[in-house]
Amino acid sequence: MRFTGPTSLTAFFVQGLLVSSVIARRNNINRCPEPCSLSINPHDWIDYHTLDRLTWCNETMILDFAIYTPLDDTDKQSTIFACKANDKNTIHGNDQYQLAVSDELLEETTLSLEGGTWGTHAALPNDDLTQVTINSVKTWLVGSPRSHQDHIFGSSGKTVVGLYIGSKIQRATAVDSVAEQMLKYIEQKGISSQIVLQHCGSNADYILGMVINMDGDLPNVQQSVRTWSDGQCVQGFDNEAQFSEIFVPVAPTMKASGLRLKDKISADSYRLEGRETTCDYIQVVSGDSCGSLVQKCGITAAELAKYNPDPNLCSTLAVGQYICCSQGDLPDFSPKPYPNGTCYTYQAQAGDYCAKIASEHSLSVDDIESFNPETWGWMGCNNLQLGQRLCLSKGDAPFPAPIANAVCGPQVPGTKQPGNDGPSLWVGLNPCPLNACCNVWGQCGITPEFCSVTKSPTGNPGTAAPGSNGCIDSCSLLVTNIEAPDQFATVGYFLGSNTEDRECLTLDAWFMPTQQFTHIQFGFGDIASDYSISVKKGNDQFNFFKSMGGFKKIISFGGWEFSTSPQTYQIFRQGVKEENRAKRVEMLTVELLKSTTLKP
């Protein structure tokens, strides 16, 4: 933060206890994010960086974040994308979810459900937040056209819900069935501290689950969803819970049609270097084993070993790894830089972690770390954030992804990369007004949470140490006046109504130490709907104030509830309209000076 103006200003607050007015104004601000209907992509939602910030909103929210970056780990940053659930349709999306592999034939399958609870049972609260949150999460996930979106979270007050549906399970039917079973259980048994409902399939593609926590423990809910994404089931219940079977269309596990080379080339032709002898291949998902891969490929174990001759294959399977299901070689999936010199750029998804990303792109984790020495916001593989743009090849660092609520820095929506300037020069884009500090999340302020420079272990631009917001531009709290003014101004503030509103700690205008001030501001004058002026509260004090000398006089209009009260808040708003400006200016200047004596 830099102040370089020619004036030094000292504020004197005689009766300036403004805390209550600040709180009043805050209570009239909508503390919730924008509606979910504005975007189907969680990356476009408002992002928050502390769990406490979520408690500001008193409505139902849909949430998404990196499930492999624990929210309760104090050694890591948190990025939580949030939107406000709509009253009707949570998003504009598809009515019917299509599986990622569209040519698979679905089979109506009976799925057994199991689960359990933690804590004692209690009656469902009358506020109905549990049902509202479940329905909002269900509506969002069913409507999302994002085929890779296998999970979502929701919160309302202290009710937190997590939902996971494996990619081979027909989403719409499964979500409806799971929500129905959970609500039925709660209606019959009551609510507990935490309830889990799940189907333990063979791997992550065939698992589904819903978790409800009534203590606002989002990290615990995150852990359950991460467990399902890992192809495992949640365990350790205090009490077992019984649920009915459900009937859901599911893709068969045998002979999945692998992603052929020709399909991949058409989608991303510059990435792959194919050969005529390319094999048919599939990818490993969480929970897979060589046995399940044999079933997926529709081949024998001997053929799997023949097509994939690595003797350690079965003990080193990695999520995202490509496996040959026929004779031939795997293509090279390692990305190449773009023609303009920028590295191949990948945007992290909620279920990503570096080992998975590396396997999917024929890379190692060390490769990813080495490709990102200057990438904006890169805090390392151990602190991967949802929406992070990162390099998966050599090349220049990519311009960072926009942040919907950023007001400063390079991530303000609509900001274009300036020529060939690198990340070190992006910090000055969209500076804060009045040279205020800009933190790494694109927010302006003048306190340590905006102005203190910190870095993550990577030291990359746009990063901050865990538990801090860092600063990228106009940093530090040092106030610097380059040159002294010809004379200093010292301003005092006097609340005229203090003698009427308080039984003690009052002060008459006559007793102000006027010799200490060049200017004194009087609060407050009143403005009527016709823009006539008066002083209703503290009029006697105003008369004293007018008659005093030795300083310049200032009067403030409005104050306290004037700007928010239904009876008066429109006066300022109407007064700035073009048709009212001239009259308002005349009343506030000419008429004021005629009717009062505000001269030294």
Automatic annotation (TrEMBL):
Gene3D superfamilies: Endochitinase-like, Glycosidases, LysM domain. Residues 1-24 form the signal peptide. It comes from the Eukaryota. InterPro entries: Endochitinase-like_sf, GH, LysM, LysM12-like, LysM_dom_sf. SUPFAM superfamilies: (Trans)glycosidases, LysM domain, Plant lectins/antimicrobial peptides. Keywords: Chitin-binding, Signal, Virulence. CDD domains: ChtBD1, LysM. GO terms for molecular function: chitin binding. Residues 280-325, 344-392 form the LysM domain. It holds the Pfam family LysM. This is LysM domain-containing protein. It comes from Aspergillus bertholletiae. The lineage of its organism: Eukaryota, Fungi, Dikarya, Ascomycota, Pezizomycotina.
